[in-house]
Design brief:
flat; 1 helix; mainly beta; 2 domains
């Protein structure tokens, strides 16, 4: 797994498309009754990004993005992507009722009530037990898994929440990218797709 971070560049268009993807097997009987089986417990995510302007000058935006793509060898290597609109939570519920003996908890973010494990953490700024911030000496986080571990198990019934920022672990979806020159030293990338990986 690579810890390379997708570059943040000013030419990204406003119309970013983000899609959750599930995998469901559907078997239909001759009577029309269906049996559905969900293959995954969490979705994959896909982003469609468009770069309207990449300058090939001293700013090196074109070479930065093209070089990053080449270093990943297209869809071969994974990397970290921080969605500009979906990268942080404050007061995220980690566990609503600790049992008094468990010390390790998965960091989660909630989308409309759907709790999704976050496994590529950028930074954790605070951890709370029943709304009270805990000293950083009392907990640690594995940034590559999103597992929050307390030095001492929280008391039974404690509400655990946290403030943190996160990445998505992704890869390029395709093995080719069409960089297009439209003026002197000005390029664009009409579409590039990123796909989350587990």
């Amino acid at each position: 797994m690579s810890n390379a971070i997708f570059p943040t560049l000013p030419g990204l268009a406003w119309n970013v498309v983000r899609s959750p993807i599930w995998s469901t097997r559907v078997q239909t009987t001759v009577s029309g009754k269906e049996t559905r089986t969900a293959d995954w417990v969490t979705p994959l995510w896909q982003w469609e990004l468009q770069y309207e302007l990449l300058r090939d000058d001293a700013t090196d935006e074109l070479r930065t993005l093209m070089g990053f793509y080449l270093q990943r060898q297209g869809s071969y290597d994974d990397f970290l992507f921080q969605d500009p609109d979906d990268n942080s939570v404050a007061g995220a519920v980690v566990d609503s009722s600790a049992d008094g003996s468990t010390t390790a908890f998965q960091l989660l973010r909630s989308l409309g009530g759907y709790p999704e494990p976050m496994t590529a953490i950028d930074a954790v700024s605070a951890v709370y037990l029943n709304g009270t911030a805990q000293a950083t000496s009392g907990w640690s986080v594995d940034l590559s898994t999103g597992i929050l571990t307390f030095a001492t198990a929280p008391a039974s019934g404690s509400a655990i929440t946290a403030d943190f920022t996160y990445y998505f672990r992704v890869r390029f979806k395709e093995d080719e990218a069409d960089f297009e020159k439209f003026a002197q030293a000005l390029w664009g990338l009409k579409t590039i797709h990123l796909m989350s990986v587990k």
